[in-house]
């Protein structure tokens, strides 16, 4: 797929990883629907950086009603959706003894249910157009779970399964792929020592970069031959 004059919906695009992906897709010629939940000012800043070919859209991805309303709004604004990047995610420690029903539902709703229904609704437009790309931002925890992050790890494991199932369901028009990401942007509350410990457990002995992640997304958007793929981008952490 040539990204020029295409339209990409990036969830969680107001900050951190989603922002970097949105900006890089725009640099490759795509118009960007910048989704955000509460990061209104940050989303407006991304739109300001990208320019006229972008617009911000608010939605709480734990709400089916708001998910259903989001896609028509983007289609009304841009006329089409060629790329969906499911980047928005909840990530918070949840020791098993402390997990509540809300913790479970919030992780599964945002990290797994929302990507499915967003994919379902956007795929209708993509198949009508004859082509489309869906990129799910996963985590290597979906392959080897993190301790004390049980609902999160389960949601990311489900996202890998969802990627493969959607690739079958939506072929041949729509290609669906997943990036199982390692440490690129540590949570803001991580200490220097915690980050150094995580880096020491990779084979590369370094953090990934936003530029590397964005290049991986661009590759999966531009190639028409990869689908159902899980691209691990985690510095060899799974081998340690």
Q: Measured on Cα atoms, how large is the radius of gyration? A: 17 Å
Mean pLDDT across all residues, rounded? 97
The major beta sheet can be summarized as: 7 strands, parallel
Put simply, the count of helices is 7
Report the CATH topology name: Rossmann fold
Distance between the termini: 36 Å
Provide the spatial order of strands within the biggest beta sheet. Answer: 3-2-1-4-5-6-7
CATH homology group: NAD(P)-binding Rossmann-like Domain
CATH classification, class level: Alpha Beta
| General shape | globular
Query: What is the correct CATH architecture?
Result: 3-Layer(aba) Sandwich
Summarize this structure as a short list of keywords or feature phrases.
alpha/beta; 240 residues; 46% helix; Rossmann fold; 7-stranded parallel beta sheet
Polypeptide structure, described:
Helix content is 46%, strand content 16%. By secondary structure, it is α/β, with parallel strands linked by helices. The protein has a single domain (7-239), classed as NAD(P)-binding Rossmann-like Domain (Rossmann fold, 3-Layer(aba) Sandwich), CATH 3.40.50. The protein has a 7-stranded parallel β-sheet, sandwiched between helices. Strand 4, helix 4 and strand 5 (132-139) form a beta-alpha-beta unit. The radius of gyration is 17 Å and the shape is globular.
Give the topology, please.
Elements: E1 7-10, H1 16-27, E2 31-36, H2 40-50, E3 54-58, H3 64-78, E4 83-86, H4 101-129, E5 132-139, H5 150-170, E6 174-181, H6 192-200, H7 210-222, E7 230-233
Helix pairs in contact: 1-2, 1-7, 3-4, 4-5
């Amino acid at each position: 797929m040539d990204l020029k004059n295409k339209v990409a919906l990036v969830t969680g695009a107001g900050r951190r990883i989603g922002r970097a992906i949105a900006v890089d897709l725009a640099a490759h010629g795509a118009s960007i629907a910048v989704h955000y939940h509460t990061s209104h000012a940050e989303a407006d800043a991304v739109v300001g950086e990208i320019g006229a070919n972008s617009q911000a859209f608010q939605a709480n991805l734990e709400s089916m009603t708001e998910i259903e309303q989001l896609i028509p709004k983007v289609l009304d604004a841009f006329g089409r959706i060629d790329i969906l990047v499911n980047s928005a995610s909840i990530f918070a420690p949840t020791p098993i003894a402390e997990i509540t029903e809300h913790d479970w539902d919030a992780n599964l709703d945002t990290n797994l249910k929302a990507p499915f229904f967003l994919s379902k609704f956007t795929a209708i437009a993509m198949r009508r157009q004859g082509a489309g790309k869906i990129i799910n931002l996963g985590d290597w925890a979906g392959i080897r779970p993190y301790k004390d992050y049980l609902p999160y790890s389960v949601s990311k494991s489900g996202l890998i399964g969802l990627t493969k199932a959607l690739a079958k369901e939506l072929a041949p028009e729509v290609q669906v792929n997943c990036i199982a990401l390692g440490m690129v942007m540590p949570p803001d509350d991580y200490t220097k020592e915690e980050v150094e410990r995580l880096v020491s457990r990779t084979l590369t002995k370094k953090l990934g970069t936003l530029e590397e992640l964005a290049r991986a997304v661009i590759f999966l958007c531009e190639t028409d031959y990869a689908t159902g793929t899980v691209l691990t981008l985690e510095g060899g952490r799974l081998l340690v």
